[in-house]
Amino acid sequence: MVVGVLSDLAKSFNVSISLVGYLVTIFATVYAVSTPFVTILTSKYRRYNTLMTLMVIFLVGNSLSALASSFWFMLISRVLTAITAGSIISLIMAFASQIAPQDKRAALVSWIFAGFSIASVFGVPIGVAISTSIGWRYAFWMISIVSILTIIPLGVLLPKNVSQTTSSIKSQLTLLLDPRIYYGIILVLFTAATMYSYYTYIRPLLTTSMHFSLGSLNWLLFIIGIFSIISNRLSGRLAELPNSLSRMPIFYVGDIILLIALPLLLQYKYLALLVILALTLIVTILNAPIQLHF
């Protein structure tokens, strides 16, 4: 949501867009650092109880974002949501691996990741429309309402007791002795860096640099979201193939070429849009294969 309302937040808090962009950077950093520790520290509790608790904390953090009166207030609320967001996803993945049969896991994982894309297709354009018409705070309240509507069916439908193992931080850190872990971390790190390097500033990129009208912004974000959903479905199909990770280099070469081309083509807005759509199509195709591999 922050991605879609960067300009409005900058105006409201009277700070630069580049400073507001740090909300995304810090969120991602806290997300990455806190997720393994929160997951380990909560592993001794029932997954169902842990997930419900984290969902409520996420709801509180997002509601505080809606109430933010300054950049620093917003930053603290985003940190709170970041601490819980990663562990929520890891728990959802754990439930998925136990609920789904082996031959359906790749498809289910890709659909879970597609949830991010679906949120982009509907959530970001709706959030932008709400922000530009009645204010960015209402966009965050919308997320809080959706969170409540998500918590209720999760609470009813998820199994209350599932088999699980507990582990200490020390035992988890022994995984760092395996060099394959570092390869996986590097792949995910650079994939995320590639995506957020352009998507964080997608609104000013489309309207200021590429000179699309503000009225066309929602449609453009909708189209980008559709391509992201297609990307996640392709990722699931790719994960079902043998040695799927060995097919990744060709996509990374494509990423490099497109990233080099994008700043050179910004003056040709339709060509630049095609580059962004192509990036969106291949940049996260690693998701399902690497989830199943590790």
Automatic annotation (TrEMBL):
<feature type="transmembrane region" description="Helical">
    <location>
        <begin position="211"/>
        <end position="230"/>
    </location>
</feature>
<feature type="transmembrane region" description="Helical">
    <location>
        <begin position="108"/>
        <end position="132"/>
    </location>
</feature>
<keyword id="KW-0812">Transmembrane</keyword>
<feature type="transmembrane region" description="Helical">
    <location>
        <begin position="53"/>
        <end position="73"/>
    </location>
</feature>
<keyword id="KW-1003">Cell membrane</keyword>
<dbReference type="InterPro" id="IPR050189">
    <property type="entry name" value="MFS_Efflux_Transporters"/>
</dbReference>
<feature type="transmembrane region" description="Helical">
    <location>
        <begin position="272"/>
        <end position="290"/>
    </location>
</feature>
<protein>
    <recommendedName>
        <fullName>Major facilitator superfamily (MFS) profile domain-containing protein</fullName>
    </recommendedName>
</protein>
<keyword id="KW-1133">Transmembrane helix</keyword>
<keyword id="KW-0813">Transport</keyword>
<keyword id="KW-0472">Membrane</keyword>
<dbReference type="InterPro" id="IPR036259">
    <property type="entry name" value="MFS_trans_sf"/>
</dbReference>
<feature type="transmembrane region" description="Helical">
    <location>
        <begin position="20"/>
        <end position="41"/>
    </location>
</feature>
<dbReference type="GO" id="GO:0022857">
    <property type="term" value="F:transmembrane transporter activity"/>
</dbReference>
<feature type="transmembrane region" description="Helical">
    <location>
        <begin position="79"/>
        <end position="96"/>
    </location>
</feature>
<dbReference type="GO" id="GO:0005886">
    <property type="term" value="C:plasma membrane"/>
</dbReference>
<dbReference type="InterPro" id="IPR011701">
    <property type="entry name" value="MFS"/>
</dbReference>
<feature type="transmembrane region" description="Helical">
    <location>
        <begin position="250"/>
        <end position="266"/>
    </location>
</feature>
<feature type="transmembrane region" description="Helical">
    <location>
        <begin position="180"/>
        <end position="199"/>
    </location>
</feature>
<feature type="domain" description="Major facilitator superfamily (MFS) profile">
    <location>
        <begin position="1"/>
        <end position="294"/>
    </location>
</feature>
<dbReference type="InterPro" id="IPR020846">
    <property type="entry name" value="MFS_dom"/>
</dbReference>
<dbReference type="Pfam" id="PF07690">
    <property type="entry name" value="MFS_1"/>
</dbReference>
<feature type="transmembrane region" description="Helical">
    <location>
        <begin position="138"/>
        <end position="159"/>
    </location>
</feature>
